[in-house]
Write a structure and sequence with these properties.
The chain is mostly helical and about 220 residues long. It is built from ten helices and no strands. Helix content is about 60%, strand content about 0%.
Length: about 220
């Protein structure tokens, strides 16, 4: 079973969890605290209009990570529901991106967040600790794409396309740590995830196996 198949298996029976609810509460608090940060003010200057859920996801994720101690501390879903064993706890970038993407599309999103965090953890296990790449941000966009797809009620074929569209836009540089680019790239990951799910719903397609294989994401980041 490929990594993409394992992620889609997580979407078969998503269920809300207390852990996901706790992450969502922490995210909401952090996002509210950061809405007046200079990062968010700059983004609003560039795009003053509300351009829909993808933009809201970008803004809230950037806000949550742009204040001192921002983001969702610790947490994650222990074991993550990842087939075959326990997954590492999600860090602030992962939980923020997944929560931002899900909440941009609705309020009842605990199950989507739980599945998204589990998917991100699975991707993080498959990614090499490649010098230069921010593994949490790269894995977060895949998890957030699954969460966004679940919020939109996408069938499996469209969820697969959404994951592929996310993989083609996976971003994140370790060099951004400690700079304004860090919340910016995490916010863009949330934007890309929501946009990918929306494009898949409109019939956009992508690779059936965007993660595994010699021309896919894992191989690219290990080269």
């Amino acid at each position: 079973m490929t990594a993409t198949d394992q992620i889609l298996a997580l979407a078969a029976q998503p269920a809300p969890t207390a852990e996901a609810d706790a992450e969502l509460a922490r995210f909401a608090e952090a996002a509210a605290a950061g809405m007046n940060s200079h990062v968010v003010r700059a983004l609003r200057t560039l795009r003053p209009a509300d351009d829909g859920p993808a933009w809201r996801a970008w803004l809230s994720a950037a806000a949550a990570l742009s204040v001192p101690g921002g983001g969702v501390p610790g947490g994650g879903v222990p074991g993550g529901g990842v087939p075959g064993g326990a997954a590492p706890a999600a860090g602030p970038a992962v939980t923020t991106v997944v929560c931002a993407a899900a909440t941009a599309l609705g309020d009842n999103c605990s199950a989507a967040v739980a599945a998204g965090l589990a998917a991100a953890a699975l991707v993080e296990v498959g990614l090499p600790a490649a010098a230069g790449w921010s593994v949490p941000v790269v894995s977060a966009v895949i998890g957030a794409g699954l969460a966004a797809g679940l919020m939109l009620g996408l069938p499996e074929a469209q969820l697969r396309s959404a994951l592929g569209i996310c993989a083609t836009q996976a971003v994140g540089l370790r060099a951004a740590a400690g700079t304004d680019a860090a919340p910016l790239q995490a916010g863009k990951a949330a934007f890309n995830a929501v946009e990918a799910a929306q494009l898949a719903r409109l019939g956009f397609t992508s690779s059936r196996e965007p993660l595994d294989g010699r021309r896919a994401l894992f191989a690219l980041l290990s080269s």
